[in-house]
Design a protein that fits this description.
The chain is mainly beta and 440 residues long. It contains three helices and 24 strands.
């Protein structure tokens, strides 16, 4: 029996040794390395490294629900406007940045989709038919590439905020005057230190021009925009200018060519931080003047990048916006105008803030000029509003706004939506909005 045990144990040990030797000859399999997502703190919160690269990425967005209530002027002639409107807007932001020997390489995309109905895009305080078509007005879904550009060191190429703009509707809900334009452009920015920079930008004229009373000719060159900006701890200041062409071909109701004109716009703005009142408080002051480019004042625009439509509506008063006009002799006359904007933001508590804002503007179409068959509209407009916003948690805003507008023209014109013969010279309107917005 002892002999049998010894034979069995010896055989088992032999088999184990042989099996171990064979296993050692087999190729081994190692676990693949795990790519962990790393936080990228170079460009601020929310960025992370794309695994396997040195590119930092941030994905964000916004959902906005908004509700508008406005006057309808019932009982006076005809009125097809609604007293309320609903809007839903979604936004997706993708921001990718890579450090290079030439500076930061940045790619930014902002895509929006909007569905609006009711009083959005209609009269009273609205932004007019163009807003309906390209910015999500009454009826239907509108998609829009709001931003899409590449920045490589000092160069910005693609679709971005105009370098002329300064305040650009930062705090108001409803529209006040002042340039807020997204445009296709090619720009170069030089940075000199201590917060000082200078930019020269070639920007697409197609979305800036406001053709109300002339047929535009072919473009020779884009709008040439320049700006000087100073940003420091106390706030920021900017001086902007633009030079452009307005080449009319036919005046409304006239036959024959019209002369080409060179127009310009200039703007100065300052933002002052007011921490002595409360953390986050700030004051904005802005003034702009133009000859031939009223979109630089916030009066219209031909493309999706414009906050405004080509016409202006205040209550029953609707008037045509036009960069240039053609008189009875076929001469092109550039529209002159200016706009003043002021905004004060105050934090009552860290979660409750209020903005008070207003604008005043005037346009001069030129003596003897006809717009839509009516002489000398020369509108003057005043807008003032305020919103109160509660942010119960980070990224969530619940706000209400009241906005009042009053406008008048030099010559009485046909009231919008009224029977023939109902002429008015001035009107005003009141609107209110509720906005619930989540940014992430």
């Amino acid at each position: 029996m002892k002999l049998v045990k010894s034979l069995l144990l010896g055989s088992a040990a032999g088999f184990a040794a042989v099996a171990g030797a064979q296993a050692a000859d087999l190729p081994s399999r190692k676990a693949a390395p795990v790519e962990y997502v790393r936080v990228c703190s170079t460009y601020g919160a929310g960025f992370f490294y794309i695994p396997g690269t040195q590119t930092c990425l941030r994905v964000g967005g916004r959902i906005r629900a908004e509700y508008l209530v406005q006057e309808t002027f019932d009982g006076v002639g005809l009125d097809t406007s609604d007293g309320y409107g609903f809007r839903a807007r979604g936004r997706l932001n993708i921001d990718a940045r890579t450090a290079t020997a030439y500076g930061t390489l940045r790619t930014f995309i902002r895509f929006e989709m909007t569905v609006s109905n009711g009083s959005y895009g209609q009269g009273v305080n609205s932004t007019g038919p163009q807003f309906v078509a390209v910015r999500g007005g009454a009826g239907g879904t509108v998609s829009n590439l709001d931003k899409g550009f590449v920045q490589f060191g000092p160069v910005t190429a693609g679709r971005a905020q105009s370098f002329f703009d300064f305040y650009a509707d930062t705090h108001n809900y409803g529209p006040i005057r002042g340039s807020d334009m997204t445009s296709n452009l090619l720009a170069y920015t030089a940075t000199f230190g201590s917060g000082f920079s200078a930019t020269i930008s070639l920007e697409d004229r197609s979305e800036r021009q406001v053709v109300g009373n002339f047929v535009t000719g072919g473009q020779t060159y884009p709008d040439i925009v320049g700006s000087l900006n100073l940003t420091q701890g106390w706030g920021s200041a900017q001086l902007s200018g633009a030079v452009f062409e307005r080449n009319g071909q036919l005046g409304q109701g006239f036959v024959g060519g019209a002369s080409d004109k060179t127009g310009y716009a200039i703007q100065g703005g300052v933002k002052i931080n007011l921490p002595m009142l409360a953390a986050g408080d700030e004051l904005w002051l802005q003034a702009a003047y133009t000859e031939g480019g009223i979109s630089y004042l916030g009066y219209g625009g031909a493309g999706a990048g414009s906050t405004w439509g080509p016409n202006s509506n205040v209550g029953r008063l609707a008037f045509v916006n036009s960069d240039a006009n053609v008189d009875v002799n076929g001469r092109t006359i550039l529209t002159k105008g200016y706009a003043l904007t002021a905004v004060l933001l105050h934090y009552w508590t860290p979660t409750i803030r209020q903005a008070v804002y207003g604008s005043y503007s005037e346009l001069d179409y030129g003596r003897g000029v006809f717009v839509g068959g009516v002489a000398n509209q020369d509108p003057k407009e005043f807008r003032i509003g305020s919103n109160l916003v509660w942010s119960p948690v980070s990224g969530l805003d619940i706000g209400v706004e009241v906005l009042y507008a009053k406008a008048e023209v030099k010559t009485r014109i046909q009231a919008a939506g009224r029977p023939l013969g109902v002429l008015i010279k001035s009107d005003d309107a009141l609107s209110a909005r509720l906005r619930i917005q989540r940014d992430f």
